[in-house]
Design goal:
- With 76 residues, the chain is α+β, with helices and mostly antiparallel strands.
- The chain has a domain of 49 residues.
- It has 2 helices and 2 strands, in the order E-E-H-H.
- Strands 1-2 form a two-stranded antiparallel ribbon.
- It starts with 26 loop residues before the first strand and ends with a helix.
């Protein structure tokens, strides 16, 4: 008789911004282009906050907007 043993796959730790809270990403920010809520780590949250306090536009971009912006820059 053959036995099938299932081994759960290991998931990588999530690095970078996420659309849900994680142990690392506890701070909520909005994308400066589309307004989507994204969760980020303390360093990114501080960076965004410092830029806004300095009177600049929100520099944070979600992955979708970042790709769209990069495509627009590439196309000229």
């Amino acid at each position: 008789m053959t036995t099938l043993q299932l081994i759960p796959t290991q998931t990588k730790a999530t690095h970078g911004p996420t659309v849900f809270k994680t142990e690392r990403n506890q701070h909520e920010v909005r994308c400066g282009m589309c307004g989507k809520i994204i969760y980020v780590d303390e360093a990114t949250f501080s960076f965004v906050g410092d830029a806004i306090k300095a009177g600049l536009d929100n520099p944070f971009r979600c992955e979708v907007c970042k790709e769209e912006y990069d495509d627009l820059v590439y196309e000229g």
